[in-house]
Amino acid sequence: MAHVELSLSDVFVPAARTPTGPGGDNVGQWSATVSHAEEPCLLIAADTRVVAISAAGCELLCLGAPEEVVGLPLLEGGLRLLDFTAARHELPEQETDKIPPLLALHSGRLARGLLRVQPAGDDTTYATVDAISTPMLTDGSVAGSLTFFSAI
Predict the structure, then answer these.
(1) pLDDT tops 70 at residue 31
(2) What are the structural domain ranges in the chain?
(3) Who's near 28: CB < 8 A, 6+ residues apart?
(4) Fold held by 23-151
(5) What is the pTM (predicted TM-score) of this model?
């Protein structure tokens, strides 16, 4: 018969680290990780400015190169959103606040949804992506959002 012994010890609590990166906040800490990620992901600040985006994220969202998008507001960086009708019209402005990266910013909660994107100047190509976003908190308030994408 097997013999199992259990012992209890003090709970390990990791030491608090000093925030690193621009502004010394969670958004700054995640910037380098997102920039070098192989997965399609995006990090935006509370003002909707793109802080970091992976090369795979740029490719999936039809945005070109990351250096062309970083620093621009998300919806002014070339991201063209389409509705889900057969005609694929551009998404109206009142609907753009409901996309997961922006919804996570405004609600302070996890957000998930589908996006249909199209490269600027190309009316025949489009992609549908699943997006899941989480708000990034700094000192208890929303400082940005982190989004991961998956092609559908």
Answers:
(1) yes
(2) 23-151
(3) 19, 20, 21, 22, 51
(4) Beta-Lactamase (3.30.450)
(5) 0.80
